[in-house]
Input
Amino acid sequence: MRTGNFLFTSESVSEGHPDKVCDRISDAVLDTYLQEQSDARVAVETLTTTNRVVLAGEVRGPETITFDRLESVVRDAVKEIGYEQDGFHWQKNEVDIYIHGQSSDIAQGVDSSGNKDEGAGDQGIMFGYACRETDALMPAPIYYSHRLLQRLAEVRHSGKEAGLGPDSKSQVTLQYENGVPVRATSVVVSTQHMEGLTQDDVREIVRPYVLEVLPEGWMCDDKDFYVNPTGTFIIGGPDGDAGLTGRKIIVDTYGGAAPHGGGAFSGKDPTKVDRSAAYAARYLAKNVVAAGLADRCTIQLAYAIGVSKPLSLYVDLHETGKVDEAKLGSILYDAMDLSPRGIREHLQLNRPIYKRTSAYGHFGRTPDADGGFSWEKEDLAEALKSHSG
Output
């Protein structure tokens, strides 16, 4: 984002949003394959609508993963979210599965053979971004939009706020002064709720969690705090609107504050550079900012299907850099093997760590002990700092 004074808005959607239900199911399927075979190939899409889930895609993995087992994976994912409604119920949904083997034409480009290293699973461009607006080095509007819905999900799952339903959205508009966020000018929360609760009831349930999540003194004026603006939100989730994997790519990344290459993440194994190279770009950008080499950093990577090395690596420090961008690009290229194999090995991506990424953002999260969110580590920062001096 630019410097100066302006307003900027980002939105988030909860795990119970129809598209996020699909992302979660697709990533649960991916994790199931990676649990059995670390080099499994998976590209699975999900469709949800009233009382129905449809899986489609291609895989290469163990035959022990049957359609019956995948149906159980689907039902468990829906149950974990909390759907037990007449129009969408983990136990009662129809589950249709249309999954086949990976195309041999794709396999020959991705697989290593002879002197050929593994190639990228597709062509495309991927972006990574980091900035100093939050401790997580994420843009503040998307960061607080995510945290708000995460908090509402926590109190819903715990039973503390049993009147809330799984499907919800948030939207936070922040005022920037001299390029720095200083307060919210509006907050929008639409959340599914049980029958019997009024719009005012839901507003009073939600308000304390907004105050808890935003920094002290950042809350907007009461007239600019919108909760369920349509009045009632009882019918939600896939019963209210069909869902598809991969439709929330801006929610998954930087909330519009940085470029996006256009590729979705969920349901794709890490040979697909749409996912793994976007993680690598975030990892490099975050470490550049963590090293103190810039206050903002955008990195672009480009790949061709079947080709191992990236076609380009572009660095933009947005006039906040303390090192030459061309020099930094060379340092980053040497600091990490950016081939699909190199990314997977460096970030240890061939593990069942993906279901947890499917809601509340793939970036700005805390690295887990088992390797989840490994791309959020700052373990390259010291090396980048020493090589850039």
In short: Residues 18-36 form the longest helix (19 residues).
